[in-house]
Structure formats: C-alpha cells, structure tokens
Design goal:
This protein is an alpha/beta fold. It folds into three domains: 245 residues, Alpha-Beta Complex (Amidase signature (AS) enzymes), CATH 3.90.1300.10; 150 residues, no CATH class; 49 residues, no CATH class. Helix content is 40%, strand content 12%. The protein has an eleven-stranded mixed sheet, with helices on both faces. The termini are far apart.
Length: 522
C-alpha cells in the first residue's frame, strides 16, 4: 500500500524518535502555525494544511533547540507524539473534544505529570524524588480530557518561590527577546512564558502568588492571567501559599488564554479553598470584539508611578490608554476604596474591628497541610515523603518550623481551619466588598493600570525600587489579564496593561482585554 506524503512524514517522525536522530520532519507550506493562534492552527488542520502530528514534531524540535538553549524546558513528555496521532484520528472521525483538541501545550515544573518525576525546578528535589509520579495534576488531567497535547514541563524558579526565572535544576532561564542573554524573563513561571513567546507551544500552565504569571508575561511580551482566586483547583501541584496561590494561563493572545482557562477551571472537593458551583467555560470560547464600547474603566492613578517611570514607559502607557479610549471605552481617573498603598492595612483593620486573629497570608500551618495533602495524593506514606523533602522545601518556604519534627503537628491541621488563614479570608471578603462599592459608585466596570511600570532588568541586578500592584491582586483575589502594550527602542517588551475586575468577573476582563488587544493591533 502506498503512503501519502503526510503519512510518510508522520512515520519518519516516529522513526526519528526511536533512533534519536535530529531529523527535520515538518516542512510548512504556509507560515508556521506554532507562531499563530489556536484558531488559525485548528483552521489549518481542518483544511489539511498540517496535522497535529507534524506540528507537534516541529514543537518538540523547537524545544530541543531553542528551549534547551534558553533553559526553558524542565523535561519533555514521551507521550506527546502518540497524543498528537490520537488527536488527528479524532479529527478525521469528526469526534474532536473541543477547541484545544490537538493543541500542543506545557505545564510548569511544579505540576505532577503521570510518567515523569516532579522536579519543582529544584536540583535537590529532583535528587530526592527521582521516581515518576503515577497521576496527573488535576489541571493537566483536564487539559488531556480536552484533547490537548502535553509536551512536558517548563523550568521555573525553585518551588515557584521567586520572580527571576532562576532554577537550580536548569540554570537561569533566558529572555528570548534579549540578544545579550542577560535580561531576566521574570518568574516564577519563566519557562512557561518563554516556551509560549518562542512558539514552542500555544499556551502553558503557570501559577501566581504575587506576580508569577504576570511578571514573565510582561517581560516576554505575551498574555498572562491571574484568574479569580479559587477558580482553578490546585490538586497535584507542589504547593506555595494556599491563600494566595492562583493558577492560570500564559498564551500569545487573550483568546487563546480564554480557551485555556475554560478547560482548566472548576471546583475540586480535594482543594478546600476552591470556589464552589458549576463552572461553565462556554462563554470564553467566543469573546466579543467590541467589549470596550460604552464601558467605563477606572484608571487607578495610585498604581501608575509616573515620577518613577521612564519616558519610554510613560509614552507606551499613555498610548495604551489612548487605545482603550479608541476602542470605545471611557477611561477616567479612579480612586478605589483600597489600593496597593493601603490594602495590607485594610486587611489588618478589618480583622481588628472583628476582634479576629491577625491576618497572615503566609501562615505556616496551611502551607504545611498543603504539602502533606500533595504527598497524600502521590505517595503511600505522605508523612515520610514530607520528611524526605522537608529541608529542601523549607530552604525557600522558611516561615515553616525549622525542623520536620517541629512542623509535624501542623501537617494534619486542615488549611481552611487555620485561624490566621480564616481571618485573612474574612478580611478579603470585607475589603473586596468595599472595593466593589467604590467601583459601583463610580460606575466603573474594571480597573486599568500597568502590570509593572518598568521592563526587564538584568537577571543579576536588583529590581528597580518601584512598588507594583502585583500583590494587591493576589491578596484581594481579583481576576487580572496582563496584555502587552508595545516594544521599547531596544526591541524588548516595554510595558503591559492590566485589566482587573472583581472576583468572578473573569469572562468580562478577558473580553475587555481581547478588545484592547485587537485595537492595539496585535
């Protein structure tokens, strides 16, 4: 039986994997789909311009070359090619699972992935836990159920703790826009951002406790989202700060980020801090193009440190505000009831008025319990596993007791019952209510401000001494979409616009961000 050219290419790709030869298996007849949108990629598949098998082979080739050179790859999954073949079979049979079926994506190094060890981007953790895990993290499982092709895992700061992309396992992740190799890509979701920015994948999973999605999104010029706190369950992921940790997408366009969020969001009874209720991601499949028309946006001037911004940053920011207005929005100064300058005191004052425990977003007990619950999901003896990894983990999460023996009594204390955490959650509800009242009184649908008021510094240098609103969004649990606003004279991403709503407004802020992105002309 004779083979078509496409079938022959697919077989060559499989043979190349077996013999581990650097064989180019993909010859594009049109612009590379890996550099485009998910919608365009799927359209090309339906036309027969390319297959998931061909494009996945090309993505893996980029990972082995660009990905490794930029130190963005933690490890590649051996199942990606088989998943691509299965996606092509579903397309031929007319049984696609949805818009992500056949789409190559990545997860961050702190996610469990069946058949691979979980390094946490830590050389010591990789040494302590070399065995492959048997179960996917819930978000990875949801992506597989949606038909996505999981290429593997991306590098991050050790245990997702810092914001520089510095991994003891892979080395410093590099910014793909910087020819000098010195500028940070941001972090902690550094590898996920770089993989998306460099066209190794269409989207990737990241996590955000204080900017870990939004920082690398701005520094690498892509879209990063911090959804409403609790919208995305976190089971099967090495934990960070349970009352702040928010998982979400990194993608090159807002529409692609929305598709990704639609697949991973939803409640999970094993994560006691997730939002309850049925999740309907259908509205995210088609974002309105004119969402800015007639909308009032509040420009939070307290989050725009004009006196500390460079002339270039101010020019890019003012142009972004002009683009929002050109899209039909009214953009006016807005002084919310709580800003980045006073939100911590607002939380504390709320607790004092209740006579409640002191709030603590980094309370040790919830993190200890989250670590225990993580290992309970993957180990027959979670207490022993925590003991084995305790010193390596605590080297970063040093609010935990100094020794495992001191921490052990905290392991079984449910994170949702920690007094400091419960007080934090009560203050969050009251502070957000105050914010909502002030937005309602001003007729403001969403807030806008720079994600960060400066572009990527050198990885070895201290960051500019400029306060940002990154932690503000995490403490209040607000949905926030960070969208690139343009490049600087040096060719580096110069600034990103954050569009921020109230908890539960994820679809709205995505629609507004999508309309801005289109107006800006991405």
């Amino acid at each position: 039986m004779s083979l078509t050219r496409r079938e022959a290419l697919a077989q060559l790709a499989q043979l190349a994997a077996v013999v581990a030869l650097p064989l180019d298996t993909w010859v594009p007849a049109s612009p590379d789909p890996l550099d485009g949108t998910i919608a365009d990629y799927q359209s090309g598949r339906r036309r027969g311009a390319w297959t998931a098998t061909e494009v996945t082979a090309r993505a893996l080739e980029r990972c082995r070359t660009d990905g490794m050179a930029l130190r963005a790859i933690d490890m590649l999954a051996p199942t990606a090619r088989a998943e691509a073949k299965a996606a092509d079979a579903r397309l031929r049979a007319g049984r696609m699972r949805g818009p992500l079926d056949g789409v190559p994506v990545f997860a961050k190094a702190i996610y469990d992935m069946a058949g691979l060890p979980t390094t946490g981007s830590s050389a010591e953790w990789a040494r302590l836990f070399p065995e492959p895990v048997r179960q996917d993290a819930l978000e990875v499982a949801r992506l597989r159920a949606a038909g996505a092709i999981i290429l593997g895992k991306t590098a991050a700061d050790d245990f997702a703790y810092r914001g520089n992309g510095t991994s003891s396992y892979t080395g410093q992740v590099l910014n793909p826009h910087d020819p000098t190799g010195t500028r940070t890509p941001g972090g902690s979701s550094a590898g996920s951002a770089v993989a998306v920015a460099r066209g190794m994948a269409f989207a990737a999973l990241g996590t955000d406790d204080g900017g870990s999605n939004r920082i690398p999104a701005q520094f690498t010029g892509i879209v990063g989202m911090k959804p409403t706190f609790g919208l995305v369950a976190r089971s099967g992921v090495i934990p960070t700060w349970p009352y702040l940790d928010t998982h979400g997408p990194l993608a090159r366009t807002v529409a692609d980020a929305a598709l990704f969020l639609a697949a991973i969001a939803g409640a999970d009874p094993t994560d006691p801090l997730t939002r309850s209720g049925v999740w309907d991601g259908a509205p995210l499949a088609r974002l309105p193009r004119n969402a800015l028309a007639g909308v009032r946006l509040g420009l939070v001037e307290a989050h725009v440190p004009r006196t500390q911004m460079s002339g270039e940053a101010l020019t890019v920011w003012d142009r972004a505000v002009g683009d929002l207005r050109a899209g039909g929005a009214t953009v006016e100064p807005f002084a919310p009831a709580v800003t980045r300058a006073n939100f911590r005191e607002a939380f504390a004052a709320s607790a004092r008025e209740r006579g409640d425990s002191t709030v603590d977003a980094n309370s040790p007990a919830p993190t200890a319990n989250a670590l225990f619950r993580y290992f309970a999901r993957r180990s027959g003896d979670p207490r022993a596993a925590v003991r084995r990894g305790y010193a390596a983990y605590r080297a970063y999460y040093d609010v935990l007791p100094a020794t495992f023996e001191e921490c052990e009594p905290l392991l079984d204390q449910p994170m949702a019952e920690d007094a400091a955490g419960r007080s934090f959650a009560r203050s969050r509800a009251e502070v957000v209510s105050s914010l909502a009242n002030s937005m309602r009184a001003a007729g403001v649908s969403a807030m806008v401000y720079p994600t960060m008021p400066f572009n990527a510094p050198r990885a070895v240098d201290p960051w500019p001494d400029v306060r940002t609103a990154l932690g503000y969004g995490n403490w209040l649990g607000l949905p926030e979409v960070s969208v690139p606003a343009g490049l600087g004279a040096d060719g580096m991403p110069a600034l990103s616009v954050s569009i921020v709503g109230l908890p539960g407004d994820d679809a709205r802020v995505l629609a507004l961000a999508n309309a801005y992105e289109r107006r800006r002309g991405r």
